[in-house]
Design brief:
about 45% helix, four-stranded antiparallel β-sheet, 3 domains, about 375 residues, alpha+beta, Elongation Factor Tu (Ef-tu), domain 3, disordered N terminus
């Protein structure tokens, strides 16, 4: 058996052990093949990147026309007119100042507080010049009463003087008649030599004196009874009446000056804010702000390009963050001038120099009551199409 195994080993060819250098050539070829594959992959990736860049560039160039095409208005129903605005009383907010010279007076008494409702003509504040002006009114009133008394006295004096002058005239006429008779009788006696010429001369002088007295009395009576042309009033009474009218005019001036020291409400409304307090002078901001809040309205700034689509009576939906739901109103007035926008959005990109037309929108009584305490609140108005 061992011989057989030995014979098989001798007949089986021996395995060759390769030298390590024998593998060098195949390894080099494998590395080169791998490098070429990576290079081809890199080139393909680069071409893909370049293609993507080109595609994005073309897409960027075509983006604007496509966007404009999508955003361009489609012919048909236009978008609704929308504008920012604010709430205010229908009378607008009136800023009351101090009448007269505000630099010469201070607030002596403040009769109202913020939020208080007032009636037209109700005193709101009194300036410290009121005391002095009240004294002037009192003095003027006294002068009026004095002139009225003088007028009444003048009327009575004239009536008494006219009566007295007429009585004096009657006596003068009687004296003339008597003196004339005495003169005639004395002249007859002189002619018959029963009396002297001196007696006749004395009677002549008595007659002349009576005639002069009569003429003087007639002149005085005529002066007293003289009338103002075109009236039945005597001149003296007319003068006294004019003095009364002059005193009454002075009284009216004093009352006007006193009234200027009292700030009164020009209409029914609510005191929205006080700008000055007791003891202060009224500055450029005035004394207080007053508004008729029982009838509120909305002032909406409509862009000049949209004003052609706004009309009187048009329904408007008014909304604000501070109001639950919406307010319903209608256009009552469209402004006649283009002005700079008064209400500006909080967006910093919003134009602050836009040109708008102010449109007034009236609210219903119910909606006015809802927002009567929200004057100057910014709102957004949407006009119905």
């Amino acid at each position: 058996m061992n011989k057989q195994f030995k014979a098989e080993r001798e007949t089986t060819p021996a395995l060759k052990v390769l030298h390590p250098d024998a593998w060098a050539l195949p390894r080099t070829k494998a590395k080169r093949s791998t490098a070429r594959g990576l290079m081809a992959l890199a080139i393909a990736f680069g071409l893909a990147v370049a293609a993507a860049i080109v595609w994005f560039a073309i897409a960027a160039q075509n983006q604007t026309p496509r966007t404009n095409l999508v955003q361009s208005p489609v012919p048909g129903k236009p978008a609704a007119v929308v504008g920012l605005g604010y709430l205010e009383p229908s009378t607008t907010v009136v800023r009351l100042g101090a009448p007269g010279n505000p630099d010469a007076s201070r607030i002596s008494l403040l009769l109202v507080s913020e939020g208080q409702s007032v009636k037209a003509g109700e005193p709101l504040a009194i300036m410290d010049t009121a005391d002095k002006l009240w004294a002037q009114v009192t003095a003027a009133q006294v002068q009026v009463e004095l002139k009225e008394l003088m007028l009444e006295r003048q009327r009575r004096e004239i009536a008494y003087t006219i009566q007295s002058r007429r009585s004096a005239l009657d006596r003068a006429r009687a004296d003339i008649n008597q003196d004339q008779s005495e003169y005639d009788r004395q002249k007859t006696l002189v002619d018959r030599s029963y009396a002297t010429v001196s007696n006749l001369e004395k009677k002549a002088r008595d007659l002349q004196t009576a005639q002069a007295t009569k003429a003087e009395t007639e002149a005085a009576l005529e002066r007293i009874e003289a009338k103002v042309p075109g009236t039945d009033k005597s001149i003296d009474v007319a003068i006294a009446e004019q003095e009364v009218l002059s005193a009454q005019a002075d009284l009216a001036v004093a009352k006007t000056a006193l009234d200027q020291a009292i700030v009164r409400a020009p209409f029914d409304g609510r005191v929205l804010s006080l700008k000055a307090r007791v003891g202060e002078r009224v500055g450029n901001d005035g004394l207080l702000e007053l508004g008729a809040t029982d009838d509120m309205r909305v002032v909406v700034d409509v862009y000049q390009s949209d004003i052609g689509r706004v009309r009187l009576g048009q329904a408007v939906d008014v909304r604000a963050e501070a109001i639950s739901g919406s307010l319903k109103g209608r256009v009552t007035y469209v402004g006649d001038a283009v002005v700079r926008q008064t209400v500006i959005n909080n967006d910093p990109a919003t134009s602050t120099d836009a040109r708008v037309v102010q449109v007034y929108v009236s609210l219903s009584k119910q909606d006015s009551e809802r927002v009567e305490k929200l004057s100057r609140l910014q709102v957004r108005g949407v006009f119905a199409q």
